[in-house]
Amino acid sequence: MDNTKWVYIQSEPVLYTVGFYAPDGEWHTDSDHGSRDDAAKRVHYLNGGKE
User: Fold this and answer.
1) 31 pairs with which residues across the strands?
2) pLDDT in tens, 6-23
3) I need a labelling partner for 51 at 20 to 30 A (CA). Which of 28, 31, 39, 40 fits?
4) Alpha-helical runs (H) found in the chain
5) In the structure, what pLDDT confidence band is assigned to residue 1 with cuts at 50, 70 and 90?
6) What is the C-alpha R_g of the chain?
7) Do the domain assignments include residue 2?
8) How far apart are CA 7 and CA 33, in angstroms?
9) Range(s) of the domain holding residue 16
């Protein structure tokens, strides 16, 4: 079973990056978004939520 927990971080003043941290602490990026809401929607979907 995949235990990946997707999150978003504010990577720049107006940029939110979605990704996950591997067990070794390495960051893996999925996508970038111009709003917190868009990033949160992507995280919700990647974590198994409905669109």
Assistant:
1) 18
2) 999 999 999 999 999 999
3) 28
4) 36-46
5) low
6) 11
7) no
8) 13
9) 7-46
